[in-house]
Specification:
Layout lengths: L3 E4 L10 H4 L11 H4 L3 E4 L1 E9 L2 E9 L12 E4 L17 H5 L34 H4 L4 H20 L7
Parallel strand pairs: 1-2
Antiparallel strand pairs: 3-4, 4-5
The structure holds flavin-adenine dinucleotide (FAD).
Length: 171
Amino acid sequence: MKVTQLDIRPRPPETEDKLAIWPFWATKMRTSSSQAEGAIREFQVGTLEFVGEDGVLTGVKCCQVDEKRKPIAGSEFIIKADLAFIAIGFRGPFNDGVVKELDGKLTLNTDRRGSTNVVANDRDYKTSVDKLWSAGDVRRGQSLVVWAIREGRQAARAIDEALMGASVLPR
Ligand SMILES: Cc1cc2nc3c(=O)[nH]c(=O)nc-3n(C[C@H](O)[C@H](O)[C@H](O)COP(=O)(O)OP(=O)(O)OC[C@H]3O[C@@H](n4cnc5c(N)ncnc54)[C@H](O)[C@@H]3O)c2cc1C
């Protein structure tokens, strides 16, 4: 059995440049014990499509990507595969529910990130739809629970102010 791990990002440096990366997580080549067991790692590779026969996976069509993660023409190749795992993290809130329900009726502005983050600022948390507020992951994208709590509290106050003219809730 062979395992190939594809990464759309460039191969990280062997040692981190802490000054260049601060305040973000210092990027460097890290190898887990599972990867050390023999996984093949490919960097700057985009996945284009699954390839199959009679509904059964036989490969993954890939290509090299440039620094903007755009496919490089003519660089396509196929990796034979009988199993593919997609492990790309959180892509955005589900597109059903209120976002879908409003589609075509009222203009609910969403942003580029996953196209379903519901746009609002972090002062009044108002969306483009009257009496609809957004806070937490659905506003800022996948994040941490401390942000969700903070935004939830601030949004509650903003909603109270908007509905009652003033709020007794703490800032
Ligand atoms: C696997 C995983 C691990 C994580 N680990 C951590 C961690 O270790 N530490 C950390 O800080 N953060 C972690 N997070 C992130 C954290 O869970 C989120 O940032 C946080 O829960 C966001 O809170 P929220 O209230 O914005 O959204 P959510 O917690 O997603 O709450 C949204 C709620 O709205 C409900 N809902 C959706 N649509 C409707 C509707 N139409 N009507 C009524 N209700 C609706 C949903 O059922 C849900 O209960 C993790 C997230 C995941 C997915």
